[in-house]
């Protein structure tokens, strides 16, 4: 028994000796796995722009290439000899290459990048290498080879790609601990950039997407980490109730885009009636809007809340010398171009060697036959003797050769057939040698002028393959869309003033306004506190609410008029202020901060209106003046923290509204930024004019359409717009147009009578076209006549359009300009004219708008100001 116990202990000791800790092994295994995924799966090589699976697919296609289409399933099976993974990953990678329409000539259903439809099964679709791929990807003579994973075959380490293929196709992948996202660039622009690099010139690259769209590359950062590209769908207005999407952002498809629109509609952020997807070869998505919904506002809402605008973060990561390298696209192009030059040099050097070898043997062959050296071997009985005899016969004639004659050269001479010797033509042989000499000289010239040769190579690529590869993505600078301005008011806001609650679920209480679930709400209470909070179902903000509304950030035009008592028995003060920025959910005291302060009067005015109120005092002691009027127009607009101006030191009985006011703000200046095709109030672009409440914009297009609109900052403009200015209703529009039906030129002058209606003011004939249009009071035009055969050219004629025709209706055809043939019509500087001055009721002394939100204004500042428009008027407390 004791012996068996001892045996067991000995076994335990032996087992303890064989235990191995595996933590270190895990560490090594994970590092090996990470390295494998980075180098062999996810990240492309900088040398040829291929990931391993893509390189093996291209190599297999070259193996199978006979000019005819091969089943993709066959190519996939062949690739598995080189790629140690399943057929699904190979087929997916091949479809992605094929959809880029550069390296693979496809046949069958290869899917659709626009709709997101997948390709048919690999047994149904076919492929072959494109002419471009055969031209730039392969050259076995300059390719470095390695054994395949099982050692049975040879595969390329890198393919000798002589083109910036990685930038043309783009590439992305997620490895272990890093990722890459290189965006596709335009084929022609890459070639032009390569040429500029070779010429020592600067170049700039921005992506070009196969799905087209509109993109802002302001923050592209050369495709490096930290950059950002904003891409938008191309949306236009088909009619007043229909939008059409004709191009989509990169990385989306029509299915995902429509899903995002429907989800935003379900959440109430936008409002649509229905969507039709008519996409086939080109994108066409019709978005039908309910009546009463603004198309311009909906376009911005689509950009703000759906995949109609996406943000892409590029990350330039490639493999170089078996290590990840983070570089920008400009450096990628430089390295690719330099690599192309080296490959071209290697190709030329190999070609030069081949030509020189051909020249060497052709010269030897001529010497051998022309000097009948083959007769010297007739009596030789041994092979060594034959070699020596030929060598001896050649020696007097080979001094001009460029290298020594070797035994291999002599053996080749012995292999010449008698028939060839008997038919040898000395002249033809000399011509062949001279042709080879020309080819050698040409290759040497290319090597001596390698950069010029490389430039010519890139220019040939552009000529041969650049047709139809023009830029698809429009480059534009975007303005940010303010989501709060374009969101649909999808819920209702209620208030319980006495208890101090606001929210969307208080349906039994007082209705305030429509709002959205992303709005902020501003609240004022009777004790003089203000708070801004996010809209919610029910929020407590403080008892005795006197004002609640949707808060507009950076709003300098909404002015609050307030009269308050300072403390329980203090003096009464008046103040005017704007609220432009706040900290959400923080209470602000709008009074002087003393306990038991009270607001006597409060009003919120969207356009800075200044009303007149009547102050009533209590009868206390010997006060003589118990009633007087206070005009808010005389109070300077200050910061919200200012104390205000003293109204009275005595007790106030009540304050009543006497009369509504007009705006004390200057007319709003509006600019048009041609870069982004948008209006703005920030001083960017060209000043359009100063606009009051109902002032409108005049828009005229090259197609002969005219309309007037309110100057909303969200308005989208057509590309063919030629006139954008402030509309003066009594100012005529003058136009000269070609009437396609009558084949004559006509002049007309008219006024726009239907505000907001788009009207055609030229003939609707397909050949009709607008020549010139002017909004000057006294426009002048110059007519250049065509020289008719056999006649002298008629002198140019000046036309005063105001005298030529009176102002008529917009639908009038106008007066015929001339019967003579016209070569050209030029619009000249107008005649001097003093336009009638615009008179407005509110044209009185005003305060500069820059003073509207002077947060640091002194509490004791008093003074003037003056007004414009209608809005919410006062509340009495």
Helix content: 25-40%
Distance between the termini: 105 Å
How large a portion of the residues is in β-strands, by DSSP E?
Answer: 25-35%
**How does the helix and strand content classify structurally?**
alpha+beta
The major sheet is characterized as: 6 strands, mixed
Shape: elongated
What's the count of strands? 48
Q: Count of helices?
A: 18
**Radius of gyration of CA atoms, rounded to a whole number:** 42 Å
Low-pLDDT stretches? 1-14, 839-877
Fold topology:
Blueprint: H1 2-17, H2 23-42, H3 52-64, E1 70-71, H4 72-79, H5 87-99, E2 104-107, E3 126-129, H6 131-136, E4 144-147, E5 154-158, H7 165-169, E6 171-174, E7 179-182, H8 187-198, E8 214-216, E9 229-232, E10 234-239, E11 242-247, H9 254-266, E12 274-277, E13 285-288, H10 295-305, E14 309-312, E15 317-320, E16 323-326, H11 329-370, H12 383-394, H13 407-414, H14 418-422, H15 426-448, H16 450-465, E17 474-475, H17 483-486, E18 491-496, E19 501-503, E20 510-515, E21 520-525, E22 529-534, E23 539-540, E24 545-551, E25 559-565, E26 572-577, E27 588-589, E28 598-605, E29 609-617, E30 627-631, E31 637-638, E32 645-648, E33 652-663, E34 668-673, E35 678-680, E36 686-691, E37 697-701, E38 705-709, E39 721-726, E40 733-739, E41 744-750, E42 759-760, E43 769-774, E44 780-785, E45 797-800, H18 801-804, E46 815-816, E47 822-828, E48 875-876
Parallel strand pairs: 8-17, 26-31
Antiparallel strand pairs: 1-3, 2-3, 4-5, 6-7, 8-9, 9-14, 10-11, 11-13, 12-13, 15-16, 18-19, 18-20, 19-23, 21-22, 21-24, 22-27, 25-26, 25-28, 26-32, 28-48, 29-30, 29-33, 34-35, 34-36, 37-38, 37-39, 38-42, 40-41, 40-43, 41-46, 44-45, 44-47
């Amino acid at each position: 028994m004791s012996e068996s116990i001892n045996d067991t202990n000995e076994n335990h000791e032996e087992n303890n000796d064989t235990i191995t800790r595996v933590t270190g092994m895990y560490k090594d295994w994970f590092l090996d796995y990470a390295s494998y995924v980075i180098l062999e799966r996810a990240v492309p090589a900088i040398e040829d722009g291929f990931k391993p699976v893509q390189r093996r697919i291209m190599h297999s296609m070259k193996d199978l290439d006979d000019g005819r289409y091969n089943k993709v399933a066959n190519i996939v099976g062949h690739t598995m000899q080189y790629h140690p993974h399943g057929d699904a990953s190979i087929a997916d990678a091949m479809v992605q290459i094929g959809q880029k329409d550069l390296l693979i000539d496809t046949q069958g259903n290869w899917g659709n990048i626009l709709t997101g439809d997948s390709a048919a099964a690999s047994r149904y679709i076919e492929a072959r290498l494109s002419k471009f791929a055969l031209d730039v990807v392969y050259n076995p003579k300059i390719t470095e080879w390695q054994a395949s994973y099982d050692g049975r075959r040879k595969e390329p380490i890198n393919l000798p790609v002589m083109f910036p293929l990685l930038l043309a196709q783009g590439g992305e992948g997620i490895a272990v601990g890093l990722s890459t996202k290189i965006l596709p660039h335009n084929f022609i622009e890459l070639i032009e950039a390569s040429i500029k690099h070779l010429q020592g010139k600067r170049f700039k690259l921005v992506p070009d997407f196969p799905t087209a769209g509109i993109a802002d590359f302001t923050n592209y950062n050369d495709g490096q980490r930290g950059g950002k590209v904003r891409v938008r769908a191309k949306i236009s207005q088909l009619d007043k109730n229909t939008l059409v999407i004709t191009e989509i952002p990169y990385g989306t498809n029509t299915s995902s885009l429509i899903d995002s629109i429907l989800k935003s509609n379900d959440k109430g952020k936008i409002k649509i009636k229905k969507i039709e997807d008519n996409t086939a070869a080109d994108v066409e998505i019709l978005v039908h809007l309910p009546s009463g919904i603004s198309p311009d506002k909906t376009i911005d809402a689509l950009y703000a809340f759906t995949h109609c605008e996406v943000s892409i973060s590029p990350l330039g990561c490639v493999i170089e010398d078996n290590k990840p390298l983070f570089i920008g696209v400009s450096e990628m192009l430089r390295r690719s171009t330099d690599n192309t030059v080296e490959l071209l040099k290697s190709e030329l050097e190999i070609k030069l060697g081949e030509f020189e070898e051909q020249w060497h043997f052709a010269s030897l062959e001529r010497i051998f036959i022309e000097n009948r050296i083959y007769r010297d071997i007739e009596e030789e009985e041994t092979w060594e003797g034959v070699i020596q005899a030929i060598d001896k016969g050649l020696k007097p004639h080979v001094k001009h050769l460029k290298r020594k004659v070797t035994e291999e050269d002599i053996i080749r001479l012995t292999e010449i057939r008698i028939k060839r010797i008997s038919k040898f033509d000395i002249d033809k042989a000399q011509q062949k040698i001279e042709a080879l000499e020309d080819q050698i000289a040409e290759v040497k010239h290319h090597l001596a002028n390698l950069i010029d040769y490389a430039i010519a190579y890139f220019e040939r690529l552009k000529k041969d393959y650049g047709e139809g590869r023009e830029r698809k993505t429009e480059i534009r600078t975007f303005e940010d869309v303010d989501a709060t301005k374009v969101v649909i008011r999808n819920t209702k806001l209620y208030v319980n003033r006495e208890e101090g609650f606001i929210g969307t679920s208080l349906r039994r209480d007082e209705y305030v306004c429509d709002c959205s679930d992303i709005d902020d709400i501003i609240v004022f209470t009777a004790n003089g506190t203000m708070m801004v909070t996010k809209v919610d179902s029910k929020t407590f903000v403080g008892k005795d609410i006197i004002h609640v509304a949707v808060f507009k950030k950076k709003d300098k035009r909404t002015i609050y008029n307030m009269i308050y008592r300072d403390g329980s028995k203090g003096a009464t003060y008046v103040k005017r202020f704007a609220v432009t920025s706040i900290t959400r959910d923080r209470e602000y005291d709008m009074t002087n901060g003393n306990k038991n302060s009270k607001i006597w009067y409060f009003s919120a005015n969207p356009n800075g209106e200044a009303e007149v109120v009547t102050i009533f005092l209590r009868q206390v002691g010997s006060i003589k003046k118990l009633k007087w009027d206070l005009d808010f127009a005389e109070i300077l607009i200050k910061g919200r923290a200012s104390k205000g101006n003293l109204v009275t030191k005595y007790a106030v009985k009540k304050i009543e509204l006497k009369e509504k006011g007009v705006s004390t703000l200057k007319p709003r200046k509006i600019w048009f930024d041609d870069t982004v095709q948008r209006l703005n109030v920030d001083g960017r672009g060209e000043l359009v004019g100063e606009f009051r409440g109902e002032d409108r914009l005049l828009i005229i297009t090259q197609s002969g359409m005219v309309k007037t609109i309110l100057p909303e900052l969200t308005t989208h403009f057509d590309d063919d717009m030629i006139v954008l200015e402030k509309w003066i209703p009594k100012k005529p529009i003058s136009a000269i147009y070609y009437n396609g039906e009558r084949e004559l030129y006509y002049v007309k002058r008219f006024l726009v009578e239907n505000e907001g209606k788009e009207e055609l003011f030229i003939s609707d004939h397909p050949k009709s076209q607008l020549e010139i249009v002017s909004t000057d009071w006294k426009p002048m035009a110059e007519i250049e006549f065509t020289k008719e055969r056999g006649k002298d050219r008629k002198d140019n004629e000046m036309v005063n359009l105001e005298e030529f025709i009176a102002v008529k209706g917009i639908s009038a055809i106008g007066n015929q300009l001339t019967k003579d043939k016209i070569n050209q019509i030029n619009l000249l500087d107008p005649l001097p004219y003093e336009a009638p001055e615009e008179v407005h009721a509110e044209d009185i002394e005003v305060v500069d708008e820059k003073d509207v939100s002077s947060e640091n204004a002194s509490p004791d500042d008093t003074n003037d100001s003056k007004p414009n428009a209608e809005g919410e008027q006062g509340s009495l407390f």
